[in-house]
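REQUEST ID: PR-0412
SUBMITTED BY: lab tech R.K.
PRIORITY: routine
TASK: structure prediction, single protein chain
INPUT:
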Amino acid sequence: MGLRVRRRIGAGTGLDGQSRSPMRLRAANDETETLIKVLTAGGPVADVGAAYGDMAYFLNSLGIPTEIIDNPPTNFNSLEGDALLGRLLHSEVPIHSVDLDSQFTLPHANYSLILFLGILYHLENPYYALKAM
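STATUS: complete
OUTPUT:
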């Protein structure tokens, strides 16, 4: 037996069927952008284990200085996807090759925010990585 849709959800509505006006969406986006800028005040931001670097390029598009830190041999696209995305977006986000399984140092002594999403369980010594950040 198939699933029946009782009500059509049209453009400008949320999954709950409530109206989402463009003004309301714009206000929510402005609030989100403001929150991101408060969290990253003073920059730079490091996106460690960045995959394609989409988060780094997004933050950079908001005017936040951002860097990509990853290890080409363990990155699923050897950081070529990151570099390609940067060229397509005409972005100058620096890409740093750092082996997080070694006794590493980061390019800067201080970051306002470090994105370290889904990386720890891949590392041989996650405690050292956390302390070095």
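NOTES: The domain at 41-132 is CATH 3.40.50.150 (Rossmann fold).
REVIEWED BY: pending
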